[in-house]
Every structure is written in C-alpha cells, then in structure tokens.
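Q: How would the structure tokens look for this protein?
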Amino acid sequence: MIGAVLALLYAPKSGKELRSDLREKADDLLEGADEYLGAAQRRAGAVMSEAKKRSETLVTDAKKKADSLLVDAERVLTDAKQKATGAVEEAGRVKNAVKAGVEAFKEERRRS
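A: Here is the predicted structure in token form.
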C-alpha cells in the first residue's frame, strides 16, 4: 500500500492525473477495507455462533451430570436411612433381649 502511494507520487504525471490515480487507489483501498471488514464480521458471527452452540452443549451436559449426581445422592441417602433404621431396630431387639436376660437372672436368683 505504501509502495503504491510512493510510486504514484514519484511517477511523472500531471497533478490532475496524480489526483485521479490517488483517488482511484484510495477507493480501491476503501473497497478492500470494506471487504475485509465484512469478512471479519462474518467470521466473528460464525465464531460467536459456534461458541454459543458449545456453551449450550456444556450447560446441557452439566445439567445431566448434576441430575445424575442428585439421583445417586438420593439413593445413597435412602440406603443409609434404611441401614440406620435397621441398626436402631436391631439395637432395640438386643436391648430387650439383654433386659429379658437380666430379668430372668434376677428371677432365677430369687428362686435359689
């Protein structure tokens, strides 16, 4: 671009021809800049679109994983509650058995 301008300035042309050439080169440069800007905008739009698709996919995957983790956590909690309930019931039976054994021992001592 700089070379083209320098070539125009050093070329042996009249002022009118030089201005015309400069105007033409400026128009070409502006047109090229417009094309470049348009291409850059299209590319930016495509990149943004792809980024949006990827982020939506990531969010969807994260939601699925979170739901799966919640289901697993609920299952573990339910199992723990059942085991705890079973342990409490078993402890109650052991307590009652010990109590009955103590009562039987006391009764046996009184008879002797």
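The two ends are 122 Å apart (CA to CA).

The chain is about 95% helix and 0% strand.

Upvote if useful.
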